[in-house]
Every structure is written in C-alpha cells, then in structure tokens.
Write a structure and sequence with these properties.
By secondary structure, the chain is an alpha/beta fold. It contains seven helices and seven strands. It binds S-adenosylmethionine.
Length: 204
C-alpha cells in the first residue's frame, strides 16, 4: 500500500513555511488557470491550492475539491467560509473506484499522486473525465532526502511518472520545478484518433 499523509496533521499543509517552500501561485500559473475556469483539485486537503485557485477563477469559475478524508473536506469548507469564497464545492471520493467530474479545465494533483494505491487506475479515470482543452498538473516529491514528505521508497520519480503518463494516453506538455524538492508535470489527454491524412479517391 502507498504511503499516506496522516490526516490529523492537516495544519502542516497550510503552514507559512510550506507556502514559502512550494509557492501555490507558481503551480497555478503553470496550470494556465484563468478567470471563469473550473479546476478539480484531487486530494485537495484543507485547501492549499483550492483557496488560491478559487480566487483566480472568481465568481464565474468553480473549484471542486476532492478527497478521501472527510476531515480534509471539512477543513476546506471552513477555510473557504473564512476567506469569503463561495465558489468551492467539496466531494468525498473513493480510493478504490475513483470517478472525477467531467470536462474541467484543470485537474490538479499536488503531493497526492504518490498516495494512490493504483496510480494507473487514477490516471485512466482522470483521462476519461478530461476534455480536449483540459490540462492535468501533477506536482510531487523528487526522489531525494528532505526533512518532510513521504519516505524515499514511497516517492514516484519523474523517470517513472513520465512513461506512465505516456502509456496512459497523455502527452506531456511541460515539466517544471515546483520547488527545490518537487517537480511538476503538465499533461494533456492524447487524442483517441489522431488526425490522419485524408486520402482522395484518386490516390488509390
Ligand atoms: C499530502 S496531502 C496533500 C493535500 C493538498 N493537495 C496539498 O498539497 O496541500 C494528500 C491528500 O491526498 C488525499 N488523498 C490520498 N489518497 C487519495 C485518493 N485516492 N483520492 C483523493 N484524495 C486522496 C489525502 O487524504 C490528503 O488530503
């Protein structure tokens, strides 16, 4: 089973120290999120990304926070109320049978991919939900020693995630450094039937 963050430690996820180490605005900038768009935050926790994303998308946009832990969703709702953000919805999701809201502009998975027991099944479910314009952004830990984060054995390095994305039907658009200790990947759903050259009758 994959290494799991202890839900009772949710406060650590919102600490100013973490905000300095892993600036959420930079991740959201890399996602290309704009006002009016919809973002699905998979493994949202108490809202480290969902709250700033809700400010960016504004009243015409929407953020949907998904998590397996109800305590995280309760914290996110509390934090959204305190921040006066009315455009965040929360949904409890199942680890064993993930289904994601369809047609969002951005699907975000921050420090959560390494917690999936079946990463390929999660990628397949995200791909099914995505539209042609959707972007998938995954941020996770590099395989190097840090004073926080999952144990080295529980990390998924870029050398594993990039081939997994490609074999799961994604095109990798960009890789970026989210922090000194974390990578980011932006991917799009590969078209099911890539456009083929039109052959006119006279050709054959
Ligand atoms: C380390 S926390 C990161 C939270 C948030 N993305 C952030 O960066 O602050 C990982 C979160 O993923 C959630 N999680 C773990 N497995 C999940 C799954 N299969 N589907 C949705 N959420 C999951 C955990 O409950 C936890 O809230």
């Amino acid at each position: 089973m994959a290494h799991k963050f202890e839900a009772a430690r949710f406060a650590r996820l919102m600490s100013p120290e973490r905000r300095r180490e892993l600036p959420p605005d930079e991740i959201l900038r890399q996602s290309g999120l704009t006002p009016g768009e919809t973002l699905v935050d998979i493994g949202c926790g108490p809202g480290f990304l969902a709250l700033p994303a809700a400010r960016i998308v504004g009243p015409k946009g929407r953020v949907i926070g998904l998590d397996v832990a109800s305590i995280m969703l309760t914290e996110l709702r509390k934090n959204a109320r305190t921040a006066g953000l009315a455009n965040i919805r929360t949904v409890r999701i199942s680890e064993a049978a993930p289904v994601f809201p369809a047609g969002a502009d951005v699907y975000l998975i921050v420090n959560t991919f390494h917690e999936f027991d079946d990463p390929a099944a999660h990628l397949a479910a995200v791909r099914r939900a995505m539209a042609a314009r959707s972007r998938l952004v995954i941020v996770d830990f590099l395989k190097k020693k840090t004073h926080f984060g999952p144990p080295l054995s529980g990390r998924i390095p870029l050398s594993r995630i990039l081939p997994l994305l490609r074999s799961s039907g994604f095109d990798v658009a960009r890789v970026f450094r989210a922090s000194p200790d974390e990578y980011g990947v932006v991917a799009r759903r590969r078209a099911e039937n890539p456009p083929t050259t039109k052959i006119s009758k006279s050709t054959y």
